[in-house]
Known about the structure:
Pfam families: CMD (PF02627). With 193 residues, the protein is mainly alpha-helical. The chain has helices at residues 14-23, 33-36, 42-57, 64-77, 81-94, 102-111, 117-123, 129-143, 150-158, 163-185.
Amino acid sequence: xxxxxxxxxxxxxxxxxxxxxxxxxxxxxxxxxxxxxxxxxxxxxxxxxxxxxxxxxxxxxxxxxxxxxxxxxxxxxxxxxxxxxxxxxxxxxxxxxxxxxxxxxxxxxxxxxxxxxxxxxxxxxxxxxxxxxxxxxxxxxxxxxxxxxxxxxxxxxxxxxxxxxxxxxxxxxxxxxxxxxxxxxxxxxxxxx
Length: 193
């Protein structure tokens, strides 16, 4: 499950039990291993949950679908299988029936940086100009954050994104990289379900 000890739902006590009880919706519900991997420090887990809700579900000029698309791209670039599966599943719930393979196309297009441009464009054909610009920025910020320059921001402004939108994109990318590092750094494995 993880390189480190994780406290399961049935063994939680005190503050951790309070957090788990808030998260569990009903009988038989299980928590994601990524959350349980942080069970040794309930305060950090609680802060992580607040950050997740604010960045991924809070009020924003970005749709939930756009945020999950960013999460899929970041996980693909980082080769984080755990987060790719989780955010891929979330994205699938948000898209139309015609777009059910979108997360696989995103993963393929952004996981292989040296693939022919024609192949990448085919995989991304269903994306809007806005989505492509957001995801290209997400990839660059993940791969080479020191190389972000003003013209990268200008490109986003040019397609109609305002400063708050760009700030929110940067927050989502940064949060997803944080999440990937937890999953990979602690050896978090996918749940059996």
